[in-house]
Amino acid sequence: MNNDVTSAGLIAAISEGDAELVVQPVVLAGGSGTRLWPLSREHCPKQLIDLLDGESLLEATVRRLDGVFPHAATSLPEPHTAVRKAAPFVVSSEDLRHLTADRLGRSGMAARFVLEPLARNTAPALTAVALAASGDGDPVLVAMPADHLIADSAAFAAALEEAVTHAARGAIVTLGVPPQRAETGYGYIGAGLPLGSSGARSIEHFVEKPDAGRAASYVASGNYLWNSGIFVVRASVWLAAIAQSRPLIAAQCTAAFDNACVDADGTVHLNRDALAACPSDSIDYAVMESVGVNARLAGVVVPLRSGWSDVGAWDALWQVSEKDEHGNVARGRVLFEDATDTFVHSDGRLVACVGVQGMVVVETADAVLVVAKDRVQDVKAVVTRLKAQHSEVARQHRRVERPWGWYDSVDQGERFQVKRIVVKPGGRLSLQMHHHRAEHWTVVRGTARVTRGDEVLLLSENESTYIPLGMTHRLENPGKTALEIIEVQSGCYLGEDDIVRFDDQYGRVQQA
């Protein structure tokens, strides 16, 4: 690998015969979105929630790439004369693999996966993908968070095509958003000399999350942009930059990739032991703060004027949503009476707001949030307290999606729990047993194939069976329509971690 990360060094390293420039989208889908609780949970974070009228932020992120690069070939540096856009890499956690794939699959979107056994932030994630993508020449990586909202797709496409042109020449490029206020939660990019007439400028320096005073001075100067979190860089440039700035990240990610397990469909499971020894760091801190300061790291910022939002908290969702004449946003069954500037989301029950101003109310099946709109950043503290109490409402919803379907915990009390379980056609739960609970299953709809110890039963509607404590069992749907059962659990402990898996087609044998 060429360790010279200056533009001149990279241009010299490009093969003269390489006419095709490969652009490799990278979707970073490992965020937790705690400030959007209770809709966003640890096991179903904000990028996987249908926040956009039936579409998740993840789907919107992949979809907006459809219209990018139709004209990019005319502005490419020599020797490139054509662009090939590769299928995106999605970086996600092992735990969210199936839910992430389901969100993409329902929209017919193809993707390749790099899976992390534990979270290590965006710098290791991009490093792992750069290693995986290097087999396709030296592609330009387009790294995008999966949980951002962009209103103007055409403006996004134009900015991204400009960014790819600079990245192809060896620069580390970020898309910068003209600041609307003195926001302390974003990184700021100090813009330097203009690069042509497109609006792109060199990066003088990068400041991650300044205090309020410095943020105000940056906005007042007119010379700074918000960092959008979208980075465009050649794979070789990134690998050289991370090796120089954070050599331990580079070394451990290389070990995690070299010792990874790869499925038949190309899914990369990074090695847990190697990744556990890798420092957790963001792209911003690991590399971008050195761009402009270190002469060997050439940086370019391209303005992004497209209605960008990171949808980081409930007030951001209120800002980008359609409002009534009083500034209110209603999602679901909501009634306003003499209310203004209020956001209400209801998953099911009617929520009536009378005489309130500047509030956020979010109703789900198992939790209700009420918070002043100017205090939504403090929702994260609530989630921290819930996790400290080992509360399930911080981790997952009452309705929990699984690779085989979903279940809803409709009732529970001392020594019992009732679940509604729906299994997709062809779905198959793991072969398992429980140490602390017995289960009663009644088929409500469809046909169930039940493994119960050494026997296999075929149950139709209104038929039932009993699974004693400690008995090996499995539930399958052999039919072409959904299978729905009611499960009644009884025992001294009913937690989801009381599962011993012996066989599982979704690769969860080692998980609790």
What's the topology here?
Elements: H1 7-13, E1 20-28, H2 57-63, E2 82-85, E3 89-93, H3 97-105, E4 112-116, H4 122-133, E5 140-145, E6 149-150, H5 153-168, E7 172-177, E8 187-194, E9 201-208, H6 212-221, E10 224-234, H7 235-245, H8 247-258, E11 261-262, E12 268-269, H9 272-276, H10 283-286, E13 299-303, E14 308-309, H11 314-320, E15 329-331, E16 334-337, E17 343-346, E18 351-354, E19 359-363, E20 368-372, H12 379-388, E21 399-402, E22 405-413, E23 416-423, E24 431-433, E25 437-445, E26 448-452, E27 455-459, E28 464-467, E29 473-476, E30 483-491, E31 500-503
Helix pairs in contact: 4-7, 4-8, 7-8
GO molecular function: mannose-1-phosphate guanylyltransferase (GTP) activity; mannose-6-phosphate isomerase activity
Keywords: GTP-binding, Isomerase, Nucleotide-binding, Nucleotidyltransferase, Transferase
Family: Belongs to the mannose-6-phosphate isomerase type 2 family.
General description of the model:
There is one protein chain. This protein is α/β, with parallel strands linked by helices. It contains twelve helices and 31 strands. Strands 21-22-23-30-25-28 form a six-stranded antiparallel sheet, with no helix packed on it. The protein has a five-stranded mixed barrel with strand order 7-10-8-9-13. The longest helix is centred in the N-terminal third of the chain and has 16 residues, at 153-168. The chain starts with 6 loop residues before the first helix and ends in a 9-residue tail after the last strand. Mean pLDDT is 90; it is low at 1-17.
CATH class of the largest domain, named Alpha Beta
The structural class is: alpha/beta
- Measured distance between first and last alpha carbons: 41 Å
Gross CATH architecture of the largest domain: Alpha-Beta Complex
- Indicate how many domains the architecture comprises: 3
Question: Got a strand count?
Answer: 31
Mean pLDDT: 90
Q: State the CATH superfamily name of the largest domain.
A: Spore Coat Polysaccharide Biosynthesis Protein SpsA, Chain A
**Structural Rg:** 25 Å
Anisotropy-based shape: globular
- How many helix segments? 12
Indicate the percent of residues in helices. Answer: 10-25%
Low-confidence stretches: 1-17
CATH topology call of the largest domain: Spore Coat Polysaccharide Biosynthesis Protein SpsA, Chain A
GO molecular function, one term: mannose-1-phosphate guanylyltransferase (GTP) activity
Protein name: mannose-1-phosphate guanylyltransferase
Catalytic activity: alpha-D-mannose 1-phosphate + GTP + H(+) = GDP-alpha-D-mannose + diphosphate
Family: Belongs to the mannose-6-phosphate isomerase type 2 family.
